[in-house]
Structure formats: C-alpha cells, structure tokens
Amino acid sequence: MNLLGIFWKLVIESAPWLLMGYLLAGMIKQLIPNSWIQSQLAEPGLLSIVKGALIGAPLPLCSCGVIPTALAIRKAGASKGATSAFLVATPETGVDSISFSYAVLGPIFALVRPIAALISAIVAGVLVSAMDREAPMAERSSQSGSCCSSKPTEPVAPLSLGQKLINSVQYGYGNMIADTAKWLVLGLMAAALITAIVPQSFFLRWGDGVLAMFIMVLVGLPMYICATASTPVAAGLLFAGISPGAALVFMLTGPATNIATMGVIKEQLGTRSLIAYLIGVIGTAVISGLILNELYQRYGWSLQLTLMEHGEAYPLWRQLAAVLLAGLVARVWLQPLLSRKAALAKAA
Description:
Elements: H1 3-31, H2 34-40, H3 46-56, H4 66-75, H5 80-92, H6 95-105, H7 107-131, H8 137-148, H9 161-197, H10 210-220, H11 227-239, H12 244-256, H13 259-268, H14 271-299, H15 316-347
Helix pairs in contact: 1-6, 1-9, 1-15, 2-4, 3-5, 3-7, 4-5, 4-8, 5-7, 5-12, 6-7, 6-11, 7-14, 9-11, 10-12, 10-14, 11-12, 12-14, 13-14
C-alpha cells in the first residue's frame, strides 16, 4: 500500500472516534466552568493534587491550551502540587484521546493510558509539593501576574440546554479542531511514514526493557504533540516493533514534557518544581511501561493495531465521517485565507 493510501486509511479508521471525542470535549467544556476548577484546586495538600489530576484528565485541552488555564488556576490560589498535577493529567489524556486510543490501539491501551496518566499526575504533584517549598500567596500572585493577569470575570446568564448543545458543537468542531489540527495531521503523517518505511524489526535492536523506554523519553521529551496526535505515532512505533510499554512511555511523556510546558514550569513554579515534575512524569511513565510489558507477557495479550490491519472496503458511513473530518481540518487553514481574500476584495 502506498503512502497516500496508508494515510487515508488512518483517517477513515480514526474519523468516527475523533468526531465523537471532539463532541464530548465540547460538552465537557460547557458543563465544567473554569471558575469551579479554580475553586476546587485552591485547597492545599494531597486532596487538591488528586483533584487537579481528576479534573484535568477529561478536559479538552492539549499541550498548548493547558498552559494558560494552569497559570490561571495558579494565580487563583492553586498550590504548586495541584497546578503540576493539572499540567500533567490534562494533556496526557482526554475524552478525545481515550476514544481514539480505543479505535487505534484497542481496549487495553484505552484503559491503561488514562490510569497511568492519573497516577503520573498525582506522583508529579506530590513530588513538587515535597521538593519545593510553597511560596506565600502574595508571592504567588506576583510571580504569575506578568503572564496570566486577567480581568475579573463577570456573572454570565445561564444558557438554555439547546444553546449549550450548539456551543458544544461549535467548540468541539471549531476551537478543539483548530487547536489540534496541525498536530493531528502531523501525527497521522508520521504514523503513515513509519508504517510504510520503517521495517518491523527496526526497534527490536533496543529490546523491550528500560533502554527502549528511555529512548522513547528522549524522543518524546522535546516534542510538541498532543495526546490525540501521539496515538497514531504510537501505533506506527508498535507496528515497527517497539514494545507496548515503550509506546505507553512515549504517549505519556510526549504531551506532558514539551519545551513550552517545561519553560512555563521553570518560570512560574521554579527550577526545583521543574526537576520534581520531570522525575514524576518520566519515572511513572517508565514504571507503567514495565508493568504493561509484564502484563502483556504474563497473560499473553495480543496487540490490536486496527489501523495496521488490511481488511475489506470500509462502509460508506465511515468514509463520509472521514470526509467530514478532512473538511473540518481543512477549514482551519482555508477560512483565514478566504476571509483575507474577501477583505481585500472589499477594500478594493
């Protein structure tokens, strides 16, 4: 199968799950106000860290979108530990990436991935709290004020159920796709390239133990990739011969440890917090990967790489879903061009 054929196969396989995930993301955005999130994470101690992980896990925010939100809750009074837990859990998983993981990697990864993400977030938050003394509230405000100062939010009239549904669709198929379109396309392209070019034995030279996992850490550490986009890349790596545990390490470290996030943590929380954050994320990812490999070996589980299987022609509804997804993604780049062209025409 040629490269373009593999790419379109990936789009067809993933489109229904991504469309469903984006809609759920939009609904969550409407149901969970930011003010409630901020109030829940203002409590000190372990409870706020756990809440930060649990609240962040399903939220429809990727690596770029989580940063301003995390800074806002930090300024609102969230502890360093809670802020760190939120920063880890939010980009590592979400309703869209969980549904996509189920479609691409099977039910085992769809279950293990969010569990490992929650544990990783809690561990990172606990380590940050333990290794870095909390600054006074006044100092916190001065530290974050330069980056995330915002005007007080005014009360908003409650929306009707119909309006909330409309807003959910607009946010899920508008803002969410706009935020992730570039990285989703890059992830699908990378998966297609790996599938078409890299032989299945390529990664076997590294084995399936700790060495392979630390190589995945080095690969994922600087990458600016969201959880959804990392899923097809992980599928391509699995197809190329890497172990399930190493693929899990990549999916946990890639979204949570990009350069932008690390820079914000260092600036807003301090170097000690950054070190604790990285130890928590990387350490938990590697341990989770080793446990997953052991489970696969002990129980004889088989990989379910749906995107890599050759099958019969896809039903029409899946092809229509792929066309719809492609249109929504294309709109992200075409709409600004059309608006600019219309503005120039009007000015002339």
